[in-house]
Amino acid sequence: MAGGITFTTVDSTKLATAEIFGKTIAELGEKDPSIVCLSPDLAGSTKMVDFLTKYPERFFNVGIAEQNMIGIASGMAKCGLTPFASCFSVFASLRALDQVHTDVCYQNVNVKIIGTHSGTSFGQGGSTHHAIEDIAVVRALVNMTVIVPADGVETANAVKAAAAVKGPFYIRINRGFDNVVYNKSDYGFKVGKAVEMVEGTDITIIACGSCVYQAVQAANILNFDHKIKARVLNMHTIKPIDKDAVLKAVADTRKIVTVEDHTVIGGLGSAVAEVIVEGGKSCILRKLGLQDKFSAIGLHEDLMAMHEIDAQGIVKNALEVMKIDAEKDEDWGDEV
Amino acid sequence: MALTKQEWIDLEKKAAELRDLCVDTVNWAGSGHWGGSSSSADILTLLYYKYANFDPKKPDDPDRDRIIVSKGHIGVILAPLFSLLGLIEREALKTFNLTGSKLGIHLDSNKVKGLDASTGSLGHGSSIAVGMALAAKLQGRSYKTFLILGDGECNEGSVWEAAMSTAHFKRKGRLDGLITIVDRNRNMIDGNTEDVMGLEPFEDKWKGFGFETIVVDGHDLPKLAEALEKAIAGGSKPFCIIADTKKGAGVSFSEDNYKWHYGAFDEAKYNTAKKDLAEYAKKRLERAEKEGI
Questions:
Q1: Which of A1, A123, B69, B205 has the highest Cβ tally under 10 A?
Q2: pTM of the model
Q3: Within 10 Å of residue B244's Cβ, how many Cβ atoms?
Q4: Does some domain include residue A39?
Q5: Which tens digits make up the pLDDT trace of B92-116?
């Protein structure tokens, strides 16, 4: 990676993902005076304190008013600033959606939205504070780039990439600590390009966010316990999605499991399904995530287990998918 | 008096020209938001022709004053205005609302040079204006930001989020020169504002949110000019000018008639509108000639 902002395993184990975002934006702010940060009374929760301390004149707390925050950010961007607006994903994507749609995306201005506490990562906050529809919502927005980093190191890369490109970005990060997926920054992060975490030819597990770590663990279990070679793709960019990586997975493995801390309607799984169907080659797809229901209250890791998006859940589902042989399906020859 | 006699006369002529071309544009478009366009006509005239530091030859000048028309449904008067300013070719007005036209009910700031925001979803312009005013101060620029709100629009909660932050950031010294003007024409789509969703005591609401308020006849150019000059001079609080206006102003069948929020002119109505506007302009001009000093 170019530039001086790099993180390692040591940072990732010491810093919550949002803290890494906070340090990254504080450093970027030093080089780029156009960067400003906005927060709706969440400077502490979304870890913008470093930036606030360094650049108080470039930090704007708008109070508990997410819609106003996004509108203000769009006005600032229209005047040449590069606003990073951060709040809980559920409010960025739903509460302020009209502003994100019209003021940011329609005007196509340079606003970066950092959605925190995404998925079920604010476990005990319950469904008012879980964001399980945000990927579906924001990926439908014209001009929006959508990134779901796998851990803190990738969050830093995503934030740097967003700052370097003009246009609306939505970066979806978790509350608290993420399991470490990357031990250093320079693994070749590129917007719109999936990262192959594990090589494999039997089945492909495509994951994003906190599910990437779980997918890698699952692939190890599948390999050691079941002699199944599972490919794992970190699909950190949901939009524009890496079509080539999906189509290659279809061609190579014919079996795909998607894993996301999000409803299975409209998110990563749906994005992958769209690519598969348009590709015209048959493939078995299973979408793991929240199955069209609100989540429960509980610890994030327990909720992930409940929704079968942890390593064990992925293994269980991958084994089921491995047993399906589409070519022996009696209906296979029915097409006219 | 804020305007000299000659300025008053000249601006009356500009306002008359704008209203007339707006009626033509409604006619070319087949229909349009004549009601709220005509109520804003004098506010727009004073801003674009006199008070805003806006050179149509330099629509991208970073130091230009910003004008956010939050009641974005009045594209049918903004397009003629921008045409009169030389930013839209006159012939393009005849394509208004046509498939593929760059002009329609809600104008697109990426397609119309000099237009500062793409508005239409009501209650959004206020926050955008706050962002622009904050950016001015941060970047050491002295441009002003004028925000034009519809009164019905003030039902939207986001207007008050932005109002709260306008006063807050002004108190904190982070924002200056954001001037809110509410087109108080007292009518919205379904009826009178006080029947649909009461706004009164409207001025008190703005005062309560930390604004210095001025209530003024929004069709009296010298008085409106005086209010704008006071607001531009500034003070310890942000200014909100409540411009008492008439929806459908100047045309007999539409004046103060909520049913003319949006509509189409048939030939007879078009002819009546043009005739009424000519008469309206004549009377206003006569007053300027008589009372101007």
A1: B69
A2: 0.96
A3: 18
A4: yes
A5: 999 999 999 999 999 999 999 999 9
